[in-house]
TrEMBL record:
It comes from Evansella cellulosilytica (strain ATCC 21833 / DSM 2522 / FERM P-1141 / JCM 9156 / N-4) (Bacillus cellulosilyticus). Signal peptide: none annotated. The chain holds residues 565 to 840 of 840 of the full protein. Residues 17-271 form the EAL domain. This is Diguanylate cyclase/phosphodiesterase with PAS/PAC sensor(S).
Length: 276
């Protein structure tokens, strides 16, 4: 009953949504989606310590459609769970492939939408995908946003607890925007906080953002959490984050999201800076 029926009177927006939704279902069947990987860098060693899988879509007519455009539409129906399941399987297969190729693999994180986290089947999907590909759970990290934690029900708690017990890592994405509440950090067994890029883009010039970032870093460390800054684009931002003892960074300064082959090369060569 999540299917929407096309009505000619639809306005342009809903028209667009209708077609994108329809096309996304086809895209899953026709393998039009693919993943790119954005490296995560350790601030001290400047080494690649992980990466984030980000979905990409080459639409047969529209060309490249950004996830910022189609993920919110997918989130309006169960489609987001199908897409999420596809990503989970794809990442586990990729980890297996890198392992078989003798690559010293790093953990990969996956973005999980709030609705998907509500599904009791999520745990089983992840468990099965890891097992089928002989992948260690410690190589998988889930990025969730605070939306998932606003009104957590028992099933979300129990899924998260089981995943943690299994050894899967958990991070809070886009921290600081939206429905931020420190309660989330206390209640959930998180490993990492990812500071939203909207804060990073303002440092070091904006004093308030600088204060907020250094306080978040200090708090995270006090709570035993790892802190990652998203959207690092300049040397000045890197210097600021180094000075504030931020653990990890992600951003165009080091690398934009890249193809699996490109990322593999980066892992092999140990190339520290892969800007481009
Ligand atoms: P996100 O999870 O917060 O991912 C970070 C976004 O910031 C990515 O955009 C990335 O390309 C971009 N980014 C990274 N470094 C920089 C930088 O230095 N400067 C700037 N301006 N941007 C940077 P992308 O790939 O377009 O993804 C947008 C959002 O779409 C993601 O935000 C995430 O919420 C969602 N998304 C992407 N892939 C998936 C997926 O597989 N599943 C789900 N559920 N959501 C996804
Ligand atoms: Mg993310
Ligand atoms: Mg983010
Ligand atoms: Mg986001």
């Amino acid at each position: 009953d999540n299917y929407k029926h096309y009505i000619p009177e639809m306005n342009e927006d809903s028209h667009n949504i209708y077609f994108l939704e329809k096309d996304m279902r086809l895209a899953l069947e026709k393998e039009e989606f693919y993943l790119e990987y954005q490296p995560k860098i350790d601030v001290k060693t400047k080494k690649v310590i992980g990466c984030e899988a980000l979905i990409r879509w080459t639409h047969p007519k529209r060309g490249i459609v950004s996830p910022a455009q189609f993920i919110p539409i997918a989130e309006e129906s169960d489609l987001i769970c199908d897409i999420g399941n596809w990503v989970i399987k794809k990442v586990c297969k990729q980890l297996k492939k890198w392992h078989l190729e003798g690559i010293n693999t790093v953990p990969v994180s996956i973005n999980i939408s709030a609705q998907h986290l509500l599904k009791t089947s999520l745990l089983d999907t992840i468990f099965t995908a890891l097992k089928a590909n002989h992948v260690s759970p410690s190589l998988l990290e889930l990025e969730i946003t605070e939306t998932s934690l606003i009104q957590p029900n028992q099933s979300v708690f129990s899924t998260i607890r089981s995943l943690k017990k299994l050894g899967v890592k958990l991070s809070l994405d886009d921290f600081g925007v939206g429905y931020s509440s420190l309660t989330h950090i206390r209640k959930f067994p998180l490993d990492t906080l990812k500071i939203d890029k909207s804060f990073i883009s303002k440092v070091p010039t904006e004093k308030d953002d600088a204060v907020i970032i250094s306080s978040i870093i200090e708090m995270a460390h006090g709570l035993g959490l790892t802190i990652l800054a998203e959207g690092v684009e300049t040397e000045e931002q890197l210097l600021f984050l180094e000075e504030k003892n931020c653990d990890h960074i992600q951003g165009f300064l080091f690398s934009k999201p890249i193809s699996n082959d490109h990322f593999k090369q980066a892992l092999i060569s140990g190339e520290l800076i892969i800007r481009g």
